Predict the structure.
Amino acid sequence: MMSTKTIIAASLVSIVIASGCAVSQSYKEEELGLRKVDLYSEKTVVAEATSYSKVAPGESKMMQRSFENAPPMIPHDVEGMMEITKESNACLSCHAPEVAEAVKATAVPKSHLYDMRNNKALADVSQARYVCVSCHAPQSANEPLVKNEFQPEFRSKDGAVKTNLLDTLNEGVQ
Ligand code: HEC
Ligand code: HEC
């Protein structure tokens, strides 16, 4: 039988060993953050260069929607299409319903031709939707530092490539 003293001494020794191990596992400042540089200075921080699609409209490959009825990302080059002004909106010259089919672009959906405040259909794209790029954005080809594990679930078969927000907007509300 071990005496109480021996047991106490043995546990003290193991605590010392255990804490010794914990201390030896140390990290440098540069290893802590995702950017792997000194955390106290911005001087050496260099953002990865953005790399937007250079593929012309008509030749780009559409991206899967991030979730049901998410605004689709812009797959093509937008060079020369910005900025959107009162007088000119390049996006509409291809995506307006009356021209879209002819240029093989996706037409703006019904929700963009609808006045949500007064619940009525409009003849033209709603002014609230005029600045397309406040919701639709191009994507830069960069590797994310933290992988996104989100998996969207689409209720309809073509939910990853099509939109039906105006038809489903009030689901579960009424
Ligand atoms: C010259 C015609 C043209 C112009 C201008 C244009 N697009 Fe496009 N857009 C297309 C075509 C065609 C596609 C289909 C993909 C392809 O073929 O490249 C497309 C695809 C898209 C998509 C993806 C649609 C989907 O269903 O996934 C979005 C979003 C989009 N464009 C937004 C915009 C915005 C915002 C602008 C203005 C900054 C714009 N486009 C300007 C022709 C155009
Ligand atoms: C306030 C945010 C917002 C603005 C501004 C906006 N959109 Fe959208 N867009 C959406 C959302 C959300 C969807 C998908 C759900 C829906 O509305 O049906 C969508 C869908 C689309 C689609 C896919 C249609 C389909 O049948 O799959 C196209 C193309 C599109 N928008 C083009 C445009 C263009 C061009 C403009 C500018 C004239 C614009 N959007 C302005 C939010 C916006």
Notes: The pocket of heme C (ligand 2) is lined by residues 69, 71-72, 91-92, 95, 106, 108-109, 111-112, 125, 129-132, 134-136, 162-163, 165 (CB under 6 Å). The radius of gyration is 28 Å.
